[in-house]
Amino acid sequence: MKTLLLHIPQINNGKREIMVIPMGLFSIADYLYKNDIDVRILHYGIQKEIEESFDLNRFIKYNKYKLICLDIHWIKQAKQTIECIKFIKSNSPDIIIVVGGISASYFADELLKTIPEIDFVIRGEGEYPLLRLIKALESNRHSFQNIPNLSYRIEKNIKHNKVTFYTDAKFYEEISHSNFKLLINYDKYFNRLLYADFDTSKRFGIRDSYKNAFFYNPGKGCPYNCIYCGSHFYKKSYIKQKKGFYFFSLKKAISDICNSYSYRIDVLRISFDPDPERRYYIRLFNELPNSLKKKIRLIFDCFTLPSEAFVKSVTSHFRDDSTLIISMETGSDYVRGKINRPYFTNHELIQSLKKILKYPLNIHIFLSFGLPFERSEDFKKTLEILNTITRLKNIGITICPIIVDIGSQMYEFPSKYNVSILYNKFSNWALEEISDDRTYYKTTFLSEVDILNSIKSLRNSYE
Hints:
CATH superfamily of the largest domain: tm_1862 like domain
Number of helices: 20
Radius of gyration: 22 Å
Largest sheet: 7 strands, mixed
Structural class: alpha/beta
Distance between the termini: 54 Å
Number of domains: 2
Shape: globular
Strand order of the largest sheet: 4-1-5-6-7-8-9
CATH architecture of the largest domain: Alpha-Beta Horseshoe
């Protein structure tokens, strides 16, 4: 059955967000390909940039796709993705529509009850369930009760099969996350600035844009329980690991990184940091081929303050324009201790930054305001730490509101954290363009307007 994996970004008044294809689409594509399924990935946003008159309906019919699987990973995609699904079904009613991803998994029941154009939802990991579904459809045996992780309709009833398929390092050993030939126009995808979540141009005269970037996490899950992060829901439901995470084997990670470089990709963005000692990464960097030494720019999200051993490893193996990102969230040590993220004090942060600055390495800080337990008087603490960091050289800072992830603890248990969530249904999120300049929640102490005004004041102070 000819299959298309389709990624729909958020496109709003010419601004494009969620341009990065989730890693899972690449592993699903490779798994299907290795099981003799005719499969390709299409990035709708990139295709429209290449060809403004691109007609998705004509493309689907010309290539004779029978099944289309769309990711609804981040909730910001909701509106455009549902509109696209309805467009596809209105023109090709026999096309099988499957959705997956974190948001689709969380709202699986509502999606099937309210959007008749969706035929199936895969909850959690999708490689094996999607293959089983395709095989069942190909054989015309429309019996789906034994396919794990699958949600679907039986007449007017919604059926949720048990989640029994989980991935681990062994499963991914022979699956590539860098088989980019399966992505239509992969060269145009990687040659574009996909995601600039920080920008130091105003202060340093440079832009931290990263074209040719491989967004790669060499593992899954997370040991932490930050109250605003959707990994809370996903790992408890779909990661069958006692410690809540696992790393890929070094062999597989090295293969993925080396293969990506063969596509002329020379920026590696990692946002997976479950081990404070970072022993896995130090070994991984040491075992990368000498031919790659100092040829790749690393952009690494540090969940905890980096050790000097890790900093030395980064500077020894990657380009001097590599960047370590540290999210401190708030200037209040007390609040930082209440939000279940890896803890460090402001003093410990400043001491760590001073040590890192001795090395040829960039630093970028993420700062926010308006978290649960944060009061208006905490604004002064955040402003003070912002001014302290600003006095240090070569440190970029992004100040932005936190948008609560679907399935986070704040989203699932708002009363526990004294917050009010604006939207609790998928249909609410799918009705409007989700903005980066909103929080979609308020706290006991701060309204959404209070939060946004405080963010604006911090930005003005920095700029």
